[in-house]
Amino acid sequence: MRLSSQCTNRLIIAAVAICFLTVPAWSADKSASSGKEAASVNGKPIFKSQFERELTGFQKRAAQKGRQLKDADLTAVKKRILENLIDGEVLYQQSQKEKIKVDDQAVNEQFETIKKRFPDEAAYKKALKGMDVSEKEIRAQIQRGLAINQLLDTNLRQKITVTEEESKKYYNDNPNLFKQPEQAKASHILIKVTPDAEESKKKQALKKIETVQKKVRQGEDFGSLAKANSEGPTAQRSGDLGYFSRGQMVKPFEDAAFALNVGEVSKIVETQFGYHLIKVTDKKPARTIPYKEVQQMLEQHLKNEKEKTEIQGYIENLKKSATIKIFI
């Protein structure tokens, strides 16, 4: 696959906004002074500094997720990044051949969306300075993304359709994808204490949850008690955890929740997070999701898959008539 799904999305949706929050590959104006080309498309250079910015951004995102890239992985990543840059340039050049014009208002709207991702003007200016880019360069990159978006809309997306027959066939051919296990919907009240905490702290936490438990048994509203007492992130939602299946919660919590009937409140449950009171508010039995419930989602999924394939083929055809040189 030449164009990664991440890059496809970036080109299609003009997600320069996302890139701007990491380390984007901006237009080559500043890079030209380096005189070092990573590649060229029909004589248009892709500078090594652009490539290095993309690589640095990828490495930072990987590090944030706790991923360490091995040498073999890094080689593959470098290859993909360069291919993505080449593919993007090929698409943009084609948009210009087809005389696609991007409305200034569309660029302005995307630009304002980017700025809103920053808490204030000072943070925005600091980001610009830190990456040594100008608003002009940002707007140029937005324009490129929107031009490519229009190109793909006109030549591909508007022509892609998915029939009901196709989505039904996918549904029938993949029955395991539509099996939904038993689910429970629950709220909880958590008093935090770690397993290795001092005994005095454990006793203090246990006393606190017992006090709340007494209020529950006296008929006080569980949600209100959760808001007032729970120390977990769900407190603001009255303790609501939504629906979950087995395997999504720690085992002591899961076992207690699935053993309850709707409307029942558990005894005090101890987990690695502390002490819980759990109230089950709904249950759904295991079932196979009917076709009609997933039809829209399936059709969109199949359309996305077709679109991905079509884009790959479209790019490869454009590249056949392009002069592409790689220097690294």
Please give a structural write-up.
The structure is a single chain. The model is unreliable at 1-34 (pLDDT under 50). A hairpin with a 2-residue loop joins β1 and β2 (44-47). Helices cover 55% and strands 14% of the residues. With 328 residues, it is α+β, with helices and mostly antiparallel strands. The strands form three sheets. A four-stranded antiparallel beta sheet has the order 5-4-7-6, sandwiched between helices. α4 packs across α7 (135-155). The radius of gyration is 27 Å and the shape is elongated.
Shape: elongated
Residue fraction in strands = 5-15%
Question: Helix tally?
Answer: 12
Write out the strand line-up for the largest beta sheet, numbering strands in chain order.
Answer: 5-4-7-6
- The residue ranges in which pLDDT falls below 50 over 5 or more consecutive positions are 1-34
Report the order of strands and helices: HHEEHHHHHHEEHHEHEEEHE
Round the mean pLDDT to the nearest integer and report it: 88
Secondary structure tally: strands: 9
Q: In terms of structural class, how would the helical and strand content be classed? A: alpha+beta
Main sheet properties: 4 strands, antiparallel
Q: What is the radius of gyration? A: 27 Å
In whole angstroms, how far apart are the ends?
20 Å
Percent range of helical residues? 40-55%
Topology of this structure?
Layout: H1 5-13, H2 16-20, E1 37-41, E2 44-47, H3 48-64, H4 71-97, H5 104-116, H6 121-131, H7 135-155, H8 164-173, E3 179-180, E4 183-192, H9 199-217, H10 222-229, E5 240-245, H11 251-259, E6 269-271, E7 274-284, E8 287-288, H12 291-320, E9 324-326
Antiparallel strand pairs: 1-2, 1-9, 3-8, 4-5, 4-7, 6-7
Helix pairs in contact: 1-7, 3-4, 4-7, 5-7, 8-12
